[in-house]
């Protein structure tokens, strides 16, 4: 298994480590519930150095990105970022990504750890048609996510730039704990926060400075329950090579006014199933569980958990379009027993604001 630059720091803290996409990653330090609530109520820090980073540079960088992503990259000014997806030729999704414009002809794309090789090969096959240089810089960065309503206050004492004026989706350079860093006001928790790119050799010192300032170390377990409460997708669950994003709450990413790879197939695809949120008063839904209506299977859970905030079961699930309307009463089969579930529109909890 590969190790992030913070592997020894996690070991010292007694983290429970798991194999995630070939990386030894902390699933939790104390409890998933406690770490989850630390982010909802205060501030937590995650090691997400396993994520991939690609540079896209050149005179046709924008034209290339307009073709290979679904969102409108032309709307990005230097210093701004956006959530996006990489479409395939068949109307499905190669990956969901975050795109940062760092220069006039320079962009940084952050991709999911499990898809680094797949994504780079996909983009590299298209790049020769454009005056563009593509570089896999995944090994050049450590990535920390500082998340929660107290994230700005905590970081303000460690950086040399005023954070209050930085809007959501801003990306900028700073010195953090005396080390050079690139910060973005982005995250995967539904709370305000910053993602921090630093050199691998600087990561341990930055991590320790964040903990000393009061950030709670959080593992991938809490990262997953937080993103699920926020209604965010996890690639391989809500999004796959076969899923049409127009059939999900993330359809807003698809900008139909521009050309992109697989556009005819994506727009022609019908939504026999739609991705919805489900809330259960009893029972804990899990990925793969069957969704029922009057005893008949009508869908499947893609992600599920016990919400630490609501203390109820929550899930994202694909269900037949006829049953996707908010308020529809369904059942989820939990270990062979059906439990009532109600269709809701994510997010499941109010999200933090900036």
UniProtKB/TrEMBL annotation:
Record-listed E.C. numbers: 2.1.2.10
GO molecular function, one term: transaminase activity
Residue ranges annotated for the Aminomethyltransferase C-terminal domain, each copy included: 274-349
UniProt GO cellular component terms: cytosol; glycine cleavage complex
Key words of the record: Aminotransferase, Transferase
GO biological process, one term: glycine decarboxylation via glycine cleavage system
Pfam family, one: GCV_T_C
Coiled-coil boundaries: none
SUPFAM superfamilies hit by this protein: Aminomethyltransferase beta-barrel domain, Folate-binding domain
InterPro entries in UniProt: GcvT (IPR006223), GcvT/YgfZ/DmdA (IPR028896), GcvT/YgfZ_C (IPR029043), GcvT_bac (IPR022903), GcvT_C (IPR013977), GCVT_N (IPR006222), TrmE/GcvT-like (IPR027266)
Transferase among keywords: yes
Domain GCVT N-terminal span(s) in chain numbering: 6-257
Catalytic reaction list: N(6)-[(R)-S(8)-aminomethyldihydrolipoyl]-L-lysyl-[protein] + (6S)-5,6,7,8-tetrahydrofolate = N(6)-[(R)-dihydrolipoyl]-L-lysyl-[protein] + (6R)-5,10-methylene-5,6,7,8-tetrahydrofolate + NH4(+)
Domain of life: Bacteria
Residues given in the record as substrate binding sites: 195
Gene3D superfamilies hit by this protein: Probable tRNA modification gtpase trme, domain 1
Subunit composition and interactions: The glycine cleavage system is composed of four proteins: P, T, L and H.
NCBIfam families: gcvT, PRK00389.1
UniProt record similarity statement: Belongs to the GcvT family.
Record function comment: The glycine cleavage system catalyzes the degradation of glycine.
Name by which UniProt lists this protein: Aminomethyltransferase
Native source species: Marinithermus hydrothermalis (strain DSM 14884 / JCM 11576 / T1)
Phylogenetic lineage: Bacteria, Thermotogati, Deinococcota, Deinococci, Thermales
């Amino acid at each position: 298994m590969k190790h992030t630059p913070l592997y020894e720091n996690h070991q010292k803290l007694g983290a429970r480590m798991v194999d995630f996409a070939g990386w030894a990653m902390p699933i939790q330090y104390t409890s998933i519930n406690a770490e989850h609530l630390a982010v909802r109520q205060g501030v937590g820090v995650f090691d997400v150095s396993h994520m991939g980073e690609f540079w896209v540079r050149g005179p046709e960088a924008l034209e290339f990105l307009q073709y290979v992503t679904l969102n409108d990259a032309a709307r990005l000014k230097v210093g701004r970022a956006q959530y996006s997806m990489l479409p395939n030729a068949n109307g499905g999704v190669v990956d969901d990504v975050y795109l940062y414009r760092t220069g006039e002809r320079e962009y940084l794309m952050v991709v999911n750890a499990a898809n680094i090789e797949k994504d780079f090969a996909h983009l590299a096959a298209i790049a020769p048609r454009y005056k563009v240089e593509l570089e896999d810089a995944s090994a050049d960065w450590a990535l920390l996510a500082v998340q929660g309503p107290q994230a700005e206050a905590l970081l303000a004492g460690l950086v040399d730039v005023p954070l209050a004026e930085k809007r959501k989706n801003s990306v900028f350079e700073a010195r953090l704990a005396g080390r050079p860093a690139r910060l973005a006001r982005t995250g995967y928790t539904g709370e305000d926060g910053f993602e921090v790119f630093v050199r691998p050799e600087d990561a341990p010192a930055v991590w320790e400075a964040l903990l000393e300032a009061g950030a709670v170390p959080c593992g991938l377990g809490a990262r997953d329950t937080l993103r699920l409460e926020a209604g965010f997708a996890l690639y391989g669950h809500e999004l796959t090579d076969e899923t049409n994003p127009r059939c999900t709450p993330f359809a807003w990413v698809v900008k139909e006014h521009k050309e992109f790879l697989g556009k005819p197939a994506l727009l022609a695809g019908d939504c026999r199933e739609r991705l919805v949120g489900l809330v259960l008063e009893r029972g804990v839904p899990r990925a793969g569980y069957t969704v029922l209506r009057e005893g008949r299977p009508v869908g499947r859970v893609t992600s599920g958990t016990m919400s630490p905030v609501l203390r109820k079961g929550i899930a994202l699930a694909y269900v037949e379009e006829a049953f996707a309307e908010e308020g529809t009463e369904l059942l989820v089969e939990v270990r062979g027993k059906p439990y009532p579930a109600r269709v809701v529109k994510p997010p499941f909890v109010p999200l933090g604001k900036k």
